[in-house]
Amino acid sequence: MRRLPIFVLLMLFPLLAFAQSTRSYAWQAGDIALTYPADWAEPQEIGDRLVLRETESDTSGVPTIIIERATSTSMDLYTQLQAAFDEIGIIPSGPLDAELAGFSGVSTSGRSADGTLYAIGRIARLADNTTLHMIGTASVAERDAFIATFNAVAESISLGAASTPRISSAYGVLWQTNTANGDPLTTITGLAYGQDDTLYAVDSQLGVIQLDAQTGEVQGVFRPSIIASPSDIAVDSDGTIYITDLACVCVVLLTSEGTENGTLDGFNARDYLSIVTTPNGSIVTADDNNVAVNGRPTANIAANSLLALDNEGRVLALSPDGALWVLEGNTLASLLQLNNLPPVNDFTIDADNHLLLATATQGILIYDLNGQQIGQVGRVVPSFPLPGELVSPSALAVSPDGVIYWADSGTLTAMSTRVQSGVSGTGTLTFGLAVQGILNEFTPQQTWTFDGTAGQIITITAIDSNPENTLDVALRLLSPSGTEEAFNDDNITGDLPARSDAQIFAHTLQASGTYFVIVESVSGEGTYVLGISEGVQNFDLSTEAATTLQGELQDVFPVQRWAFNGRVGQVFTVTMIAESGDLDPMLRLRDASGNILAENDDAADPALGLNAQLLQVALPADGAYTIEAVRFEGSGRYRLVIVATSQ
């Protein structure tokens, strides 16, 4: 059993208390999302303003924050802020540099003429040339506490509260994952779409991850020893993988099988080194000074510029100031200028020659080659994104058929116009692969399908992805003919995170064909995770050598069951060893009637640590037995080793 030291619990307590002291709010009219103190009154939308107050009273001195988004004027930002202060009788103290919603601006503060009222304000000009300003007022006696509240609200603001993207085609989540073979994703700094519908990601901790671009299933993880601080990744038509690394200031080459195959050196890069490979086999890089082709500098470039290929195979370079260039021979020719851009972390070109920009504060923006913004993908939120939502995407890629891939907040997401919005996946379940969906008042249920065979034993699990368990789900299984075969509302196994989660456990299918799984909201709304697995996996217990089995556990697959036939008096030892992630294993042995014969969390042998072991278990009768590989907590891959110590 894993226990936290006392000092860790003490450190966590104030953080947890703070996390619970705010609420989220989406101001649709201003296209803004933010958080505000949970003990304040509900925000009010008054005309073109959003008003936040500590109480419902508007008495002078009550802590109040007013946010307004307005059309641009000829006045400079500080003059506009001064005018807003004049309206409430506050004398400003002078301008200071500040940020709001990720954009540069100014701030000021001041007091009323009688010295009783304090005010603080920020203002910034946004990418669409509108201005956003917020002004807060409170009594002078509450000044210090109010400044902290005002700044917390200001720093939580992000754009993109509108639920409908401005692009004409609606994108839905194709898949989303936050692990690679059980290990959590950390910081993904580069994505590349390769041959055979394969996606490559470079993670600062895990190395290079190879995924099926259509399902998100991990096909391989390569851990090159030389990579310490990766910044970008590219893959050529032969499958060779190129990773730029800031620690060695070099390009690391890997074969398609992940074997290290040398480096390219001679770069000058401090914060970012970008790379693309062209259809003719050239390797193009951009460091702090130059664009280089096959290691030979050809043109000067601004530091931290990004590279991408258009549909004609031309190399495009995007400078931090929004200038877009095209590489023509040994020179960079100006293509267009994108104005008022927030910081851009990555960019790529889709099949329609549109620019896709992964921005630090405004999600993924789409521009045409005339420099006009024509849409955006997903919805920007301050934190804790649901599928299809973004905080600050760090890497971006696109497939020829228009699927968009991005990395953000420890997750990899694929979105496509082929997928219904609100559903993660094409609607088809794959055994052992989790999918996600969103239930709310507009979508109280969603339907998934899978192909089954009569006599097949399956387990279907649906859980609320929110650890606070605000969504109560139910599962309904319909046969190929449309009749109901099974239903579950609240699970009773105790292996799922909450009783309000649902599980159709070890159900034997009655027919062959396409089955329908309906996930329903009993109460609440939010994101759920859904998975289907084989109910029991059979194996033959060897009496002459160790039997080794492997599996993986996670929230939606919390238990895997391994069945075998045993004989009375047979004695064996079962050891469950965690091999990835933060998995803390547990083991159970059940007889044919489901009775627990033996159970263990932490092995008696201290050398096994948190691993589990059933030591010298004697079978009481001939018959069928089931070993349950369970998790006390965490997730990851495991290995079962079963050694018979008697015949």
Mind explaining what this structure looks like?
This protein has 647 residues and is mainly β. It has three helices and 57 strands. Helices cover 6% and strands 50% of the residues. A hairpin with a 5-residue loop joins strand 33 and strand 34. The model is unreliable at 1-20 and 162-169 (pLDDT under 50). The strands form 14 sheets. Strands 3, 4, 5, 6, 7, 8, 9 and 10 form an eight-stranded antiparallel sheet that branches. A five-stranded antiparallel sheet has the order 40-41-48-43-46, with no helix packed on it. It has four domains: 6-159, Protein Transport Mog1p, Chain A (3-Layer(aba) Sandwich); 163-178 and 350-426, no CATH class; 427-534, Jelly Rolls, CATH 2.60.120; 537-644, Sandwich (Jelly Rolls).
In short:
The protein is mainly beta. Helices cover 6% and strands 50% of the residues.
